[in-house]
Design brief:
The protein is built from 6 helices and 13 strands. The chain is of the alpha+beta class. The chain has a domain of about 200 residues: Glutaredoxin (3-Layer(aba) Sandwich). The strands form 2 sheets. It has a 9-stranded mixed sheet. A 4-stranded antiparallel sheet has the order 10-11-12-13, with helices on one face. The protein starts with 8 loop residues before the first helix and ends with a strand.
């Protein structure tokens, strides 16, 4: 609770020491739609768009399990230009592809469905997304907006505010896409450091929630390797094999590229936390899954 008696989920998570590792939602495709009006609590689903176009975009996104996010620039910057949309795609072999367009009528968003099946452009700079979705969760706005301001001052062309990305209690949350890297528990200073390091080609374990092409135990394994051996490039390590020993126990082989360790075997255990209030607006008590790496050994 704050001094005013109001509950903030991110404050509570920090007080408890909630682990952020292994909490990045799985996925490799992002649809961004710049929307300058008020964001509904449920984001794109709540927009009052032309029904056929909205249904087309929704169905196309569902078919490839894409996450649809509403975005905007921090402050009022860029309002003289038409709003944009984008499809960002992380391919299995590590290629990052982007497809951008503009829209002035709802029907223009139908182009998104075609873009999901198009190759897209390579060698585009990454997009830095900061969740500031206050109608979804108060902490996303309270903690996200200062981070958005700080990052926008450093990289005005890369940074967008966005709707809910998951993990309200880990606000401020930043997603680098289509790299598929989630960072959490950030403030204005740590966010600038994390993004600067990321853009320089190094992912640090601190504040890393996970890589979205990996499942939670795999995310935890890679984060532990980065913590043990130091920051490394996004593709310096890859998960070569995963075996589930028990319901709450995994053995994961992580392969590294030189000069990093070649083969590492990581033991990951999971446990459920006690019931807790995990969001600002959800008073019900829920259990979360936390992942713990118990050993890392080289071959």
């Amino acid at each position: 609770m704050s001094a005013s008696g109001r509950f903030f989920c991110a404050d509570a998570a920090r007080t408890r020491g909630d682990s952020i590792v292994g909490t990045a939602p799985h996925g490799s495709v992002w649809i961004l739609i710049e929307y300058r009006g008020g964001w509904p609590a449920n984001g794109f689903d709540g927009l009052d768009l032309e029904p056929d176009t909205k249904a087309l975009v929704f169905a196309a996104a569902q078919a490839v399990r894409a996450r649809v996010l509403l975005v905007r620039r921090h402050g009022r910057r860029g309002r003289e230009q038409p709003p944009v949309w984008a499809v960002l795609n992380f391919e299995a072999l590590g290629a990052y592809r982007q497809h951008w367009g503009t829209w002035s009528r709802d029907e223009d968003l139908a182009q998104i469905a075609g873009a999901l099946g198009a190759p897209g452009r390579l060698a585009c700079p990454p997009v830095v997304l900061v969740c500031t979705h206050g109608r979804h969760d108060t902490c996303c706005a309270v903690r996200g907006r200062p981070v958005s301001r700080a990052l926008s001052e450093c990289w005005p062309d890369l940074v967008w505010e966005c709707t809910h990305v998951g993990g309200d209690r880990f606000a401020a949350n930043v997603v680098v896409a289509p790299d598929g890297v989630y960072y959490g528990g950030l403030d204005a200073v740590s966010a600038v450091t994390a993004v600067r390091q990321h853009l320089a080609g190094f992912v640090h374990a601190e504040h890393l929630r996970g890589y979205t092409d990996l499942f939670p135990p795999q995310q935890a394994a890679v984060a532990a390797v980065l913590e043990r051996f130091g920051p490394a490039g996004r593709h310096a390590y890859s998960v070569a094999a995963t075996s589930r020993v028990a319901a709450d126990h995994w053995r994961i082989r992580v392969d590294g590229r030189p000069p990093h360790p070649a083969v590492l075997h990581v033991e990951v255990h999971a446990h459920r936390t006690p019931p807790r209030q995990l969001t600002c607006h959800g008073p019900s008590m829920s259990r979360a899954v936390a992942y713990e790496v118990t050993s890392i050994r080289a071959r």
